[in-house]
């Protein structure tokens, strides 16, 4: 598990198929590197609770952004590579980010 600090992380989606509807309910950590110039509103990871908060996720269809979401996830203990279960999704408040 990465240590303390700000990281530039790449996550891949993983999901389940419910009668032809694919629901993305987990993300897998693909890569993480220390970030030396973080964005003003970084995503947060609390190692004690395993909670991840991503303030803005751009959902795309091809190269077109269709919506912006805020995502909360929790680390699934013992997974390698690290996996995160989505716990909540809501529209991003772009005025506060």
Care to give the gist of this entry?
The protein is mainly β and 97 residues long.
Question: What would you note in describing this structure?
Answer:
Strand 4 (51-61) and strand 5 (64-75) form a beta hairpin. The chain has 97 residues and is mainly β. It has no helices and 6 strands. The model has no long low-confidence stretch (mean pLDDT 76).
Can you give keywords for this protein?
single chain, 97 residues, mainly beta, globular
Count the E strands.
6
What is the helix fraction of residues, given as a range? Answer: under 10%
Major sheet description = 6 strands, antiparallel
Order of strands, widest sheet: 1-2-6-5-4-3
Provide the gyration radius in Å: 14 Å
The end-to-end distance, rounded to whole angstroms, is 27 Å
Beta-strand content estimate: over 45%
Q: Poorly predicted ranges (pLDDT <50, ≥5 residues)? A: none
What average pLDDT do the residues reach? Answer: 76
Quaternary assembly: single chain
Overall spatial form? globular
Count helical runs: 0
């Amino acid at each position: 598990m990465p240590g303390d600090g700000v990281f530039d992380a790449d996550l891949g989606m993983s999901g389940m198929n419910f009668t032809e509807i694919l629901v993305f309910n987990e993300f897998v950590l693909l890569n993480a590197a220390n970030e030396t110039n973080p964005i003003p509103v970084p995503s947060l990871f609390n190692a004690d609770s395993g909670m991840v908060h991503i303030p803005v996720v751009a959902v795309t269809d091809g190269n077109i952004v269709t919506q912006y979401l805020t995502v909360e996830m929790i680390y699934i203990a013992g997974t390698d590579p690290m996996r995160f279960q989505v716990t909540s999704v809501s529209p991003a408040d772009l005025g506060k980010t």
